[in-house]
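Protocol step 4 of 5: obtain the predicted structure for the target chain.
Materials: sequence only (see below). No template structures provided, no constraints applied. The aim of this step is simply to have a reference model before the mutagenesis design in step 5. Sequence pasted as it appears in the construct record:
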Amino acid sequence: MYDSIKRVTRRSLLASLFLLTSQPLAADTDVSIAQILAMGRAEHNAGQARTTVATKTRERLSRQTRLNFDLRIESALGDTGLGTRDTFAPLSRPWELSANTRVEIDEATIAWRKRSTHLTLGKQSVAWGVLDGLQVTDRLNPTRLREGVFTETRPERISRWGLRLRLRKAGFDWDAVIQPDTTVSQLPLQGDTFEPRAARLRGGLPFETGNVTVTFDQPATTTAGLRMSRRNGDQDWSLLVIRGPEYEPIFSLDASGVTARYPTRMLLGATWQKTLGNQVIRAEVAAVPNQPVNLGTELGIAVERSRWIGGVGMDWDLPAGWFVNIQLAIDQIDGRDLARPRRDEILTTRIRRAFDNDQWLLQAELIGNLGDGDGTFRPSLSWQVNDALRVSWGADIIWGEPNGLFGQFDDNDRVWLRAIMSL
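Step 4 output (structure tokens):
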């Protein structure tokens, strides 16, 4: 493991030089280098080593126009993985510098603004939900699932090429998005640490069947969304509709192997949040009348069913600087004999406190599926060494049955170290 870490670090430094010298640094360009090292149970290979070098450029072209360009380069060990490339549309697909090193555009936009009208063209991501890390209505952009929920930021949205128009009309805020880019959620590669093992995430196909060839069938549907929102005093609400490819693949099976497909679905949703002193209450609900889902009784067969997702959450700012967030989401789909359970109940609890003038940050997160009885506990401690360097230590402790949403990774308990340096 130590030799592998040295190799990935050496590759990353060389790639960093390539990135820094190939992109002219303007006055409004920020550069950051992030290194994560994780060590799991030796016999189960839950280790990880990945370096990310990212640049963020902000350039004002005129009084009303701004250019944004964010680029990243990543290098990782093969068994921890950088995730699939075939799930990206050709124009968005990361470029491979080597088998384990990639360059990807995170954002490339031209933004124009006049009064309350905002127009953004280019590669961008859009967040429409109000819950923290639970995706109920926040389903416009795909996400990175190469490490499941075991990431620093959740969800990790993937940007796509498109157009976004925001304006205020008739007392409402309108947000319209069109994304011809057909990129879908990034998945772990076969053999990666967090490759799905539960049959519910494999279209009913048992993990014990061994390696099979998986082909990703790129969707041909443009994603479009419209959101109407309004603020009334201390509360906000919104209504939205999204039509585009489903990001949770369904699987078909034939003699040549397994094909992951992404049929078109429509989502109707609403969000609401209200501030009550030192508390914030949040709620979301979504309906998908044509949710594609695999049958559990017939491998490779998919049907459409009605799906309902709802979630509530509350934030508390407590005395002595403590912050607490509790959320509950329910995901229910009609029908029987499906590859996934009819109902999931996800409970999340987060607690956070800063010490010593925000130099130290103690956090802990508990995520559980009440239906399966599985979950994960994720404590961490961060130290802001100086303005340029932050170091974090933490652990991912996982439990549950092999076919559970979290229990499938029961053998992947690990401790990790992350360092982020800003230049």
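Step 4 remarks: The first helix runs from residue 2 to 22. Residues 19-27 have pLDDT under 50 and may be disordered.
Proceed to step 5.
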